[in-house]
Amino acid sequence: xxxxxxxxxxxxxxxxxxxxxxxxxxxxxxxxxxxxxxxxxxxxxxxxxxxxxxxxxxxxxxxxxxxxxxxxxxxxxxxxxxxxxxxxxxxxxxxxxxxxxxxxxxxxxxxxxxxxxxxxxxxxxxxxxxxxxxxxxxxxxxxxxxxxxxxxxxxxxxxxxxxxxxxxxxxxxxxxxxxxxxxxxxxxxxxxxxxxxxxxxxxxxxxxxxxxxxxxxxxxxxxxxxxxxxxxxxxxxxxxxxxxxxxxxxxxxxxxxxxx
Length: 260
Prior knowledge:
The protein is an alpha/beta fold.
């Protein structure tokens, strides 16, 4: 039997990048998935590709109501919810505090933290009752930047450290009914967007000149990850059979960065 046979997941930021890879892997493992994302076109493609296993909501993770819609749709369509995966995030293009203009600091902070931290809280809050009923679990996407400086700017790195704290606190609060864990990807070939206004440059992360080469050389495995390289770890943590005693844990999927 597949690892997630007859399970149902709600994945935010699931129309592209790591989120899309996780959606596709969950479906391969037998799960049905509700996806919340802002990209209507990509959601329609997903719905057409997996009409029986997918339901979608075009919305904003910073809106509790949009997260609630996704949960309600999952329950209506599939009858249960077993896993919430928080994945949507935005970058700050390595902007240091000294580079951010004073008049931009508060608005840039609010925008990035609303997506990267509040977005996860909204998804968790909207999913709580259903996850308690199923004795389910939560998996949040972190980043190397949740543990080390230099993988982003001051806003992104601080937000990802906050996610590590969120995982630990929720694991404490929600036990024993719900397990809470994280996956910490290293540099990945994905077009993560940047918050506007903190830098004159705001192109997607994997469009930065030299990004792939520099990222590959920075880790012992000497290659940059594809989104699918991380997906099996989400399956592992979402499976109550494969990780029944794992909570408050973050698994690093970073090409050996942690071992440098």
